Amino acid sequence: MDEASLLIRPCRDSDLPHLQRITVESFGSVALEQMLEHKFGLWNGRDWKARKAAHIDEDVIACPEGCFVAERGTEILGYITVRIDRANLRGRIPNMAVVESARGLGLGRRLIQHALDFMRGEGLKLAQIETMASNAIGQHLYPSCGFEEVARQVHYAMKL
Ligand SMILES: CC(C)(COP(=O)(O)OP(=O)(O)OC[C@H]1O[C@@H](n2cnc3c(N)ncnc32)[C@H](O)[C@@H]1OP(=O)(O)O)[C@@H](O)C(=O)NCCC(=O)NCCS
Predict the structure, then answer these.
(1) For residue 13, is it within any domain?
(2) Domain total for the chain?
(3) Structural domain contains residue 153
């Protein structure tokens, strides 16, 4: 990707609808929220898109300074969010996505590097990220950015 035309900058309030759109367009096959819906259907009238989009709102509220967008011209191509656990000098990347048309060009890697630089600047000592076992890109990308696998988790759910 043309380095000069791409800007990674802090998220603004006006970006939020774009981030939500990118999220629901991007996370289809890799979101736990969608897997729950596939298995159990709707349980309160809210679909997985509403729940997943709300995660981004929650990230921005929890740590607005840790939310960054990648922009080319006026088009937002991707974003990354960071949450900070200051008591334990630890940062976590709960969500990131790149629009499908811009994938595979190194943008995800650049967003991760940007988030890691932000965490270092905040004095944090450990960075965490997680991915679903079904997300082959995450399992390739995160180790290649320096993350080491620590543990695997199994998600259970049942209807009440
Ligand atoms: C994950 C995501 C943000 C990566 O964005 P991106 O801009 O395509 O990332 P990059 O181009 O920097 O890197 C992608 C890497 O995955 C590799 N890759 C692509 N498809 C792959 C596949 N099916 N299996 C394994 N690796 C794959 C690419 O070759 C590249 O690695 P390389 O740099 O060593 O060649 C993007 O795919 C996305 O938005 N996915 C949907 C949402 C999502 O999964 N978010 C993360 C949740 S944990």
Answers:
(1) yes
(2) 1
(3) no
